[in-house]
Amino acid sequence: MFLNHRTPVLPTPEQALRGRPVPEFTVPSRHTVLGNPLVGPYPEGLEVADFALGCFWGAERKFWQTEGVWTTLVGYQGGYTENPTYEEACSGLTGHTEAVRVVFDPAVVSYEELLKLFWESHNPTQGFRQGNDVGTQYRSAIYTHSPAQAAAADASREAYQKVLTASGHQEITTEILPAEGRPFWPAEAYHQQYLDKNPGGYCGIGGTGVSCPVGVAPAEG
Predict the structure, then answer these.
(1) How far apart are CA 151 and CA 199, in angstroms?
(2) How many other β-carbons are positioned within 10 Å of the β-carbon of residue 126?
(3) Which of 25, 59, 146, 196 has the fewest beta carbons closer than 10 A?
């Protein structure tokens, strides 16, 4: 979406934009594809996962197309600015990633299966970029909501690194951090389910072509 020819650098908390105590916009009430509410509280029994894998337009579609996902929404996470706008996030002065919040039913799709989709849907070795999208907001990240999620994410990164290395790829640069203390700030209405509203719109999502060995459902029988 934006091609930045400068070398991206994360701001410090002191350098980051201050933001605002309330958002400048209203988030839609329901998902345009799944029909469920975007913002919680969510029904009992569902779990939340947060992923950043480049431009959030295409990333969100990957997850809403997955059986067992109850709702998805895009936003900004991992930085310092409160209630940022898209323009602020793209300036590189908020420290946020373009993130996707995935609300899912663990009885239908496991967190490990979502991790598999995450790894295979982008190139996690590129640092502050995804393809031609350059900037700190495009970095790869997983923000975990429990010790179990953190352990699964760490194990999946280790397993995927082995197959990436065997295929000639570089080191994974994905950051794995607790979601606690890193609020998810929902993005503007026009970003939510963007590729449903604009089927021919830009999608910068593309993987390495290397299959991830984690999150595979056990064989029956």
Answers:
(1) 36
(2) 20
(3) 25
Contact residues for 178 (Cβ-Cβ < 8 A; gap 6+) = 143, 144, 145, 150
Name the DSSP class of 77: E
Residue 176 and residue 150 in contact, taking contact as beta carbons nearer than 8 Å: yes
| Residues classed as catalytic | 55
Q: Are 111 and 49 in contact (CB under 8 A)?
A: yes
Element (H, E) at 111: helix 111-120
Q: Which residues of 199-220 are buried (b: 16+ CB within 10 A; e: fewer)?
A: eeeebbbebbebebebbeeeee
Give the three-state DSSP class for 194: helix
Structural contact between residues 183 and 50, judged by C-beta atoms closer than 8 angstroms: no
Q: Tell me if residue 203 falls in helix, strand or coil.
A: coil
Amino acid at 204: G
- Per-residue pLDDT 10s for the chain (221 aa) are 444 456 899 999 999 999 999 999 999 999 999 999 999 999 999 999 999 999 999 999 999 999 999 999 999 999 999 999 999 999 999 999 999 999 999 999 999 999 999 999 999 999 999 999 999 999 999 999 999 999 999 999 999 999 999 999 999 999 999 999 999 999 999 999 999 999 989 988 889 999 888 643 333 33
Is the entire prediction scored with pTM above 0.90? yes
